[in-house]
Amino acid sequence: MKVRDAIPTVENSSNFNTVPDPITKVGTTLENLKAAVNGETGASAKYAACAVAAKEQGFNQISRLFEATSAAEQIHIGLEMGVINQIEPDYERPAAPEAEGIQTDLNLIAGALGEIYETSDMYPSFIQKALEEDEPKAVFVFTRAKLAESVHAELYMQAYNNIDAEDDEKYYLCPICGYIHKGDDFEKCPICFTAADKFRAF
């Protein structure tokens, strides 16, 4: 993902359309925030399990990628919970479900499909509803998650295509928006402009 002159938003970006025949069930913005938290909680648990499976199967770099994406989903949960708790202070985030990984190539495909769904269907649908309801804080957090998820999908497919040709490059996680960069050839996050030295390495 290239760094643009301005932080990407719904207003200055061309990739916020929702897929034809979306499958996301859209409720109120508050309901959508809760649904997003629930989905991200499940994804984080699944990726953590996939990281364990990948390591056991000898895919150390892919294991680190799954660890990074699991942590990224926790960042999205935190962003979304922050908005929920401003509206409903007593709301408690759902418990993480039990999860397990299978063969690493299949885990990567499943992860990519899940991230593509979020970036092309779920989050665009939720963003549109938040715009209709004039909920700018929700638009903001949904936007950051949506943009990061598309990069996660790309990284999963890169790992899938190169599963038998791993390299030594690290993954770097933006602590603000959940963007992940492979390799150390970057200066700042292309989503929120956080400096590279603030990133967490995996």
Task: Provide a short characterization of the protein structure.
The protein is mostly helical and 202 residues long. It has helices at residues 29-56, 60-87, 104-132, 136-161; strands at residues 171-173, 180-182, 200-201.
The end-to-end span amounts to 19 Å
Structural class: mainly alpha
CA-based shape? globular
Radius of gyration: 16 Å
> Number of DSSP helices?
4
| Strand percentage | under 5%
Identify the strand order in the major beta sheet.
2-1-3
Helix content: 40-55%
The H-and-E topology, N to C, reads as: HHHHEEE
Would you write up a description of this structure?
This protein is mostly helical. It is built from 4 helices and 3 strands; from the N terminus they run H-H-H-H-E-E-E. The chain has helices at 29-56, 60-87, 104-132, 136-161, and strands at residues 171-173, 180-182, 200-201. The chain has a 3-stranded antiparallel beta sheet. The radius of gyration is 16 Å and the shape is globular.
Question: How are the SSEs placed, and which strands pair?
Answer:
Elements: H1 29-56, H2 60-87, H3 104-132, H4 136-161, E1 171-173, E2 180-182, E3 200-201
Antiparallel strand pairs: 1-2, 1-3
Features:
202 residues, 4 helices, mainly alpha, 3-stranded antiparallel beta sheet, globular, single chain, 3 strands
